[in-house]
Amino acid sequence: MTFDRKKHLKKLHKHRRKETIEKVEQAIQYLKTTKQPINFSRVAKQSNVGKSTLYSIPEVKERIVIFREKSFGKNYTQQIKKEQNKDVIHSLKRKIHSLEMENKELKNQTKYIYGQVFDSEDQN
Predict the structure, then answer these.
(1) Distance CA 117, CA 122 (A)
(2) What is the pLDDT along the chain (124 residues), one digit of tens a residue?
(3) CA 110 – CA 90 distance, rounded (Å)
(4) How far apart, in whole angstroms, are the C-alpha atoms of residue 121 and residue 10?
(5) Nearest Cα to 24, choosing from 59, 70, 72, 66?
(6) CA distance 72 to 102
(7) Furthest-apart CA atoms within the chain: distance in Å
(8) Cα–Cα distance between 26 and 115 in angstroms, integer?
(9) Could you give the CA distance from residue 45 to residue 59 in angstroms, rounded to a whole number?
């Protein structure tokens, strides 16, 4: 019954890696539930794991990259929608302004025509 150091170190390494992955998963779930952007810095801070560790574990790295792209895509599409809405609002404001000016001009023309009609009735 000799103590096998290699076996023990491998077992210890597997156990620590498993714990690290669990911490990272919990951090990702927390960030998802609080609707915060998921990226390497936030996950590292939330899980108390170094960024280099996140990059060194392929499955963790892949998950974070996928979530980061999803959150980036959401933010990007929201930004595009906001810009499009601003353009639409600006366009509608210009349209309203031009219609108000046209309405004002038509009212002035109507007053002028009524004035001519009343003047012609007075002369008759």
Answers:
(1) 9
(2) 577 888 899 999 999 999 999 999 999 999 989 888 888 999 999 999 999 999 999 999 999 988 888 776 665 566 667 778 888 899 999 999 999 999 999 999 999 998 888 888 777 6
(3) 30
(4) 110
(5) 59
(6) 45
(7) 132
(8) 80
(9) 18
Residue type, 113: I
The residue type at 93 = K
Q: Measured between alpha carbons, how far is 104 from 23 in angstroms, rounded to an integer?
A: 68
User: pTM for this one?
Assistant: 0.54
Apex CA 80: angle with CA 78 and CA 84, to 5°?
Answer: 115
Beta carbons within 8 Å of 20's beta carbon, 6+ residues apart: 47, 49, 53, 57, 60
The span from the first CA to the last CA of the chain, in angstroms, equals 132
Which token pair is 124? Answer: 């008759």
Residue with token string 């019954």: 1
Tokens coding 65: 């990259």
Tokens of 112: 């002028």
DSSP-assigned letter for residue 36? P
